[in-house]
Design goal:
317 residues, alpha/beta, eight-stranded mixed barrel, binds ligand C2E, binds magnesium ion
Length: 317
């Protein structure tokens, strides 16, 4: 890989010239190696952005500006709340509450996802330990975090510190082309302690069916895009995914369920679990207990949060 810069066009002194060539080299390497790249001002702007994002995120992790929101996952036929997915929010001192798509990429690129993910695991386990014994928490794990050394023992530490049983923890992973053998072995070990593994965003990756065979999985999360497209007379894809999951011994969970119609079609397709705004939006940790006691009083049927303005469903759809 070669990176180069010119004088005086790119730089006016020797130090800056060398630094500029370095940035070009770095870009050439990260673009796939075996390349020649010339310096451009965009590279310097990007490096500056990255450095400040790194600093800001690092500080945010240290000063615990992150919080978890919880979104219920319910059994499709009865509406029973089985567990909650932990979804990360950054309470930014200036920009307000930030959702993951604003900061997860930077956290992954800089490696800060590892300490951040650790904080998430510990928070999620500690909070879930206060819930009823038959309610699980499911935590998103980024590929970088999954491949990082010591991930398995970090999970065990989080369980130990919180007193949460492994049976009440689920980890959500994504397809990343090749999930390395190493990670598969680690997931096998975690599963042996009772932890469940879910494949997130199924259907958006490029080697979907390959991953299904290779990965040790308990739950298949059907991506929201399939649910959005779901309509009367066109549920063939969802139905087949549910069947494949069943054949491989997994349960299916539909993400992003927003309407009663979608829920009805999913029930017909045989999908076991659902999650989405129709049932409830993600809520702060302090609202979980109240939500659970409200669902317990809905006579074993569906509990739809009144702020969703949706009609109540009875068991069986
Ligand atoms: P995901 O794991 O697929 O999570 C589902 C996302 O869909 C969440 O967005 C959730 O709020 C949103 N959602 C749920 N129901 C509905 C619905 O009915 N309609 C619509 N339009 N959206 C719905 P959120 O919280 O912004 O999270 C986005 C992504 O960020 C997550 O996607 C996950 O990949 C990532 N993420 C969230 N928390 C963490 C974390 O702690 N660690 C890591 N590594 N990634 C995280
Ligand atoms: Mg998820
Ligand atoms: Mg998803």
């Amino acid at each position: 890989s070669i990176g180069y810069a010119g004088a005086p066009a790119d730089s006016e002194d020797a130090d800056t010239l060398v630094m500029s060539a370095d940035l070009a080299l770095y870009a050439a390497k990260s673009a796939g190696k075996n390349r020649v790249g010339r310096y451009s001002p965009v590279l310097r702007a990007r490096a500056r952005e990255r450095a400040s994002a790194l600093q800001e995120l690092g500080l945010a992790i240290e000063s615990r500006q992150f919080e978890l929101y919880y979104q219920p996952q319910v059994r499709a036929d009865t509406g029973r709340v089985e567990g909650f997915e932990a979804l990360l929010r950054w309470n930014h001192p200036v920009r307000g509450v930030l959702v993951p798509h604003i900061f997860i990429d930077v956290a992954e690129e800089t490696g800060l996802i590892v300490p951040l993910g650790l904080q998430v695991l510990n928070m999620a386990c500690a909070e879930a330990a206060t819930w009823p014994d038959d309610t699980y928490v499911t935590v998103n794990v980024s590929p970088v975090q999954l491949m990082s050394s010591g991930f398995g023992s970090a999970v065990n530490d989080a369980l130990e510190a919180s007193g949460l049983s492994g049976k009440r923890l689920q980890l959500e992973i994504t397809e990343t082309g090749a999930v390395e053998e190493l990670a598969v072995a680690e997931l096998d070990r975690l599963r042996a302690t009772g932890i469940a593994i879910a494949l997130d965003d199924f259907g958006t990756g490029y080697s979907s069916f390959e991953s299904l065979k290779k990965l040790p999985l308990d739950i298949l999360k059907i991506d929201r895009s399939f649910i959005t497209e779901l309509s009367e007379g066109d549920s063939a894809v969802v139905t087949s995914v549910v069947e494949v999951a069943k054949a491989l011994g997994m349960q299916s969970l539909a993400e992003g369920v927003e309407t009663a119609d979608q829920l009805r079609l999913l029930l017909t397709a045989g999908c076991e679990l659902v999650q989405g705004y129709y049932i409830s939006r993600p809520m702060p940790a302090k609202e979980v207990a109240e939500y659970l006691s409200a669902t317990a009083h809905s006579n074993g049927g569906y509990f739809i949060r009144s702020d969703n303005c949706a009609p109540l469903l009875t068991a069986g759809g």
